């Protein structure tokens, strides 16, 4: 199987070669700034809420009619904008690709 060539770290002006993304030093800095999942309010209560919603709504709810399994919950109104974290009306069950396409923005897909 072919191996992908190494490329520079995604951090500007870093010459460290990596297979993808950031070098270990810059990845640690990014994760430290972002905080842990618990620090971002995704704790045990969230994990239970998420599991219950995904159990009831197992398919991706993207408007394009995607029928892949839902693996992520997306907040329609971001928490930073006053959205309720545990309100089922404020979350949309999405597959990974549709959730990633939003890039941290609110709204529905």
Secondary-structure topology with pairs:
Layout: E1 7-8, E2 17-18, H1 24-34, H2 44-56, E3 72-75, E4 91-94, H3 96-102
Antiparallel strand pairs: 1-2, 3-4
Strand order across the biggest sheet?
A: 1-2
- Number of DSSP helices? 3
Using only C-alpha atoms, the radius of gyration works out to: 17 Å
Approximate helicity band: 25-40%
Quote the beta fraction.
Answer: 5-15%
Bulk shape: globular
Q: Terminal Cα separation, in Å? A: 36 Å
Residue-averaged pLDDT: 86
Number of strands: 4
| Overall domain count | 2
> Biggest sheet, in brief?
2 strands, antiparallel
* SS class: alpha+beta
Low-confidence stretches: none
What is the H-and-E element order? EEHHEEH
Describe this structure in words.
- This protein has about 110 residues and is an alpha+beta fold.
- The protein has two domains: about 1-35, no CATH class; about 45-100, no CATH class.
- Helix content is about 30%, strand content about 10%.
- It has three helices and four strands.
- It has helices at about 25-35, 45-55, 95-100; strands at about 5-10, 15-20, 70-75, 90-95.
- Strands 1-2 form a two-stranded antiparallel ribbon.
- The longest helix is centred in the middle third of the chain and has 13 residues, at about 45-55.
Provide a compact summary of the structure.
With 109 residues, the protein is α+β, with helices and mostly antiparallel strands.
Keywords, separated by commas or semicolons:
single chain; 109 residues; 2 domains; two-stranded antiparallel ribbon; 3 helices
